[in-house]
Amino acid sequence: MPRLIGTMARTAVVAGTATAVSNRVSRRQAGRWQQQADAQAYQEQQYAPPPQQQYAPPPQQYAPPPAAPAAGIEDDVVEQLQKLAGLRDQGILTEEEFAAQKAKLLG
Prior knowledge:
- The chain has 107 residues and is mainly alpha-helical.
- The mean pLDDT is 79.
- α2 (71-89) runs antiparallel to α3 (95-106).
- It has helices at residues 2-47, 71-89, 95-106.
- The termini are far apart.
């Protein structure tokens, strides 16, 4: 029976040592992974461009000047007058109808 107790004690010592070594290896490996993650985060932070500041545009102090009439409107009136003149020249509109439409467009 003394041999059995000795074998059991030896087994307990080996198992305890194996557990301690395993835990130490796990902690060391977790520490290395954490160091690698910290180093990578530090490098990313160093090489990242600085955040740009957002500035609000200055408040407008004066009202903008009134817009000039668009050239497109004048061109449109000229085109319509040319069409009316064409219709008058073709005899579709009388001189009075042409004059009335012209006054309406220019008025």
